[in-house]
Specification:
It is built from 29 helices and 19 strands. Helix content is 51%, strand content 15%. By secondary structure, it is an alpha+beta fold. Among the domains are: 158 residues, Tetratricopeptide repeat domain (Serine Threonine Protein Phosphatase 5, Tetratricopeptide repeat); 100 residues, Immunoglobulin-like; 129 residues, Sandwich (Immunoglobulin-like). Helix 2 packs antiparallel against helix 3, helix 10 packs antiparallel against helix 11 and helix 18 runs antiparallel to helix 19. Strands 1, 2, 4, 5, 7 and 9 form a 6-stranded antiparallel sheet that branches. The chain is globular, with a radius of gyration of 31 Å.
Length: 740
């Protein structure tokens, strides 16, 4: 059969082919290139920066170039001052991936953006100005950055300021502060203040300075020694803010107090930090920051924190006392107040790519009059993991964990984790003397089931979690830390691995447990039958701890359906006495606490403490705090005081300072003496609380006494219900801090 094609049909086909080809070139290919770059960024590819440059250069329209610059370049520049900040009791890092650009290429891109985009109603343009000014300051010097900001302000806002973009509005005073010219910074802040007052008055609004404006001004006043003026400024701000919030938002007095406390406490801490160097006696602090092979680390920002101050905020170089390491890795603070300090480090990711900090972040450095204090901070190489790695599926009878040997290490801790519902639960092997450890299947099985307890919201063991473990439907992760005999930390396997040279192996593996007949029934949902078989397996072999653990886990599900039953409690106790593992003892304590069996709790706590003593371990701080509250309820105040004060006053993770202070107030200790106690607990991890200023204004009364009794005896949720009944706003602020 002959098929004839008319010329017009052939022409239509050719035209369609060319149209489709053009569409592929114009739409599909650029989209694929963009997707490829996005994947490179997500995977932390070190060549992502160059790929972005090539993508922008290949864009065939100005509007596309502008969009690509905004999406890939400006977004990567929009982050905090330091990629990573490591301080006395907090660490922060950027969430966006690391993208490195050549400085000249970045400058050309920014100039193109400013030339071809409009500032009108374009917040990205103003944000770009702010970021580019910071880049100029870093790469060409503060004077050039100041000139750039002045030029752009004259071009864009000849009659005032861009009040809708505060970072840009405050850029000039920020740069003056960075330069150390407090006089010009203050003049600029005052000018902004006056302009804003006139502007909002025309709109019939009241004006109160912003948080950032206040922060800059307070730092300047503190640096100038004008502390009274600084505190007066805070008082005026609080008064005006109270009036505005009540007028515009209808907030009552109590709501305002709760909102404002944290802000005022942070400002007072900032004043304390910024006034460092205003005292009479002076000293010098020098230091060296290097890698373990002796390579100096240049360009690290070093911040001084007053060791006696509770709040350790994340500092910025524009306003906080700092030094920068030179090409020898050295830094110096001259003419600083004598006293005790702690050090914070502002780092870029290239500083710590493949390395982690071995220096104790809590270490206190003492600066004495007319003397030079010295400190050395070292970053050690991340430990490489050899086996098992990269998602390996282990099917052998034994698991052989191997890692890089660390010079000078006396022992290692191995941490193993399994993820369930987005949470990684850990258990570990400690005091491993060599750089490998062999774990048999049965030992792994027992440790895995007995070391982690996963419960649902009703305290029942979570069956889904245990089914995933037994079926092998989980991925495990692991890490190693190296220590010396004195407890000092040398290095770890976890840290930043950002380049091809440091990426290393992924610390993941999978392991399917060999299933018993009881396991098969359990996975099929036949819980009663599985329970009976686990019970029989343990009866046949009393060393089968796995069977005992699974029997215990199933007890409340199939025997009497009650996690508060005596049978479940008995099963938990048998498991604890058999395994001799601290975690299983804590499960018993948790059960007894829920049953409000205070005497039973006290008895088992002593057994738990004896076990830890034999293992040369310390009581878990959470359990120590709970035990102190149990003793309070039993009326044993002397023993309760011992356990409320159990933790070392310099311990970083001391969550319970408020409990200590509440206990002492309840026991009749004078408020001034309680404030002295508060001064000894300076290292408070997590939510930083200025206990001294809170205590200063309280009045201990019957309402506070009742609140503390409910809090210690029934828990924070029941105590929280009493807060509306507390009439004193100062008492209420103190008690709210305790339960938070």
């Amino acid at each position: 059969m002959k098929v004839r094609m008319k010329r017009k049909h052939l022409l239509y086909g050719i035209i369609s082919f060319f149209i489709i080809s053009i569409m592929v070139v114009v739409l599909v290919v650029p989209a694929l290139k963009e997707y490829k770059v996005e994947r490179m960024i997500a995977n932390g590819d070190p060549n992502a920066g160059q790929a972005i440059i090539e993508l922008i250069d290949s864009a065939n329209t100005t509007s596309r170039k502008i969009r690509l610059i905004e999406d890939f370049v400006l977004s990567s520049m929009s982050r905090s001052e330091h990629a990573v900040y490591i301080g006395p009791n907090l660490t922060s890092r950027i969430d966006s991936p690391w993208i490195e650009f050549d400085s000249k290429q970045r400058e050309n891109i920014m100039i193109y953006y400013f030339t071809h985009s409009s500032p009108n109603n374009n917040w990205r343009y103003i944000e770009a100005l702010d970021q580019y000014a910071s880049i100029i300051s870093e790469e060409k010097g503060i004077d050039e950055a100041i000139a750039f900001v002045k030029q752009k302000n004259e071009e864009l806002y000849p009659n005032g300021y861009d009040v809708y973009s505060e970072p840009w509005t405050l850029k000039l005073p920020e740069l003056y502060l960075k330069q150390g010219d407090f006089h010009k910074a203050k003049e600029e802040l005052v000018a902004i203040h006056e302009y804003e007052k006139r502007r909002v008055k025309e709109k019939d609004f009241k004006y109160n300075p912003s948080w950032q404006w206040m922060t800059y001004m307070l730092r300047i006043l503190a640096k100038e020694g004008e502390l009274d003026e600084a505190y007066d400024l805070i008082d005026h701000w609080v008064k005006d803010e109270r009036e505005q919030r009540i007028e515009y938002f209808g907030e009552n007095e109590m709501e305002f107090v709760e909102w404002i406390d944290h802000t005022v406490m942070e400002w007072k801490s900032i004043i304390s930090q910024a006034s460092v160097g205003n005292g009479n006696e002076k000293g010098v602090l020098t230091g060296l920051i290097k890698r373990e092979d002796g390579t100096p680390m240049q360009g690290v920002y070093v911040y001084l924190h007053d060791a006696s101050s509770q709040t350790k905020h994340i500092p910025v170089p524009e306003t906080d006392n700092h030094a920068i390491t030179d090409d020898k890795g050295e830094f110096v603070f001259e003419n600083i107040n004598t006293g005790s300090y702690q050090i914070g480090l502002g780092l870029e990711l290239y500083h710590i790519d493949g390395y982690n900090l071995s220096y104790d972040q809590r270490q206190v450095v003492f600066v004495n009059p007319d003397q030079e204090a010295d400190v050395t901070i070292e970053f050690t190489k991340i430990i490489d993991l050899f086996h098992p790695v990269n998602g390996e599926a282990i099917d052998k009878e034994e698991m052989n964990f191997q890692w890089e040997q660390v010079g000078g290490a006396d022992y290692y801790h191995i941490y193993l984790g399994v993820k369930h519902d987005g949470v990684v639960m850990n258990f570990f092997y400690d005091d491993v003397k060599t750089n490998n450890v062999v774990i048999g299947k049965e030992e792994w099985k027992e440790r895995l089931i007995t070391s982690i307890t996963v419960e649902d919201d009703t305290y029942y063991p979570d069956l889904d979690y245990y089914k995933k473990l037994i079926s092998g439907d989980v991925e495990f992760s692991w890490s190693v830390s190296a220590y010396q005999d004195d407890g000092s930390h040398l290095s770890s396997s976890h840290g930043y691995r950002l380049s091809k040279e440091t990426i290393g192996n992924l610390p993941t593996f999978s392991f399917e447990l060999e299933k018993t007949k009881a396991d098969e029934l359990f996975l099929k949902g036949k819980l009663k039958g599985a329970y009976e078989l686990y019970k029989a397996d343990y009866a046949a072999d009393n060393n089968n701890v796995y069977a005992l653990a699974m029997q215990t886990m199933l007890t409340p599900h199939v025997v009497d359906g009650n996690v508060g039953s005596e049978m479940y409690g008995a099963a938990l106790k048998e498991l604890a006495l058999t395994t001799k593992e601290p975690h299983t003892y804590m499960n018993v304590l948790d059960y007894l606490r829920r049953q409000e069996d205070l005497d039973g709790y006290k008895e088992w706590f002593h057994l738990y403490e004896e076990l830890l003593t034999k293992k040369n371990q310390s009581v878990d701080m959470y359990e120590a705090n709970r035990y102190a509250k149990i003793l309070f309820c039993l009326g044993d105040m002397d023993e309760a005081r011992k356990w409320f004060h159990y933790l070392d006053k310099d311990t970083l993770s001391h969550y319970y300072v408020g409990d200590v202070l509440a206990f002492e107030l309840y026991n009749g200790i004078d408020k001034q003496n309680v404030m002295e106690i508060a001064k000894t607990y300076k290292e408070n991890y997590g939510e930083h609380k200025d206990w001294e200023s809170l205590l200063e204004s309280i009045t201990y009364d019957a309402d506070m006494k009742h609140f503390i009794e409910v809090y210690f005896g029934q828990g924070w949720e029941q105590a929280e219900e009493l807060l509306p009944t507390i009439t004193s706003k100062h008492n209420k602020a103190f008690l709210r801090q305790i339960i938070e």
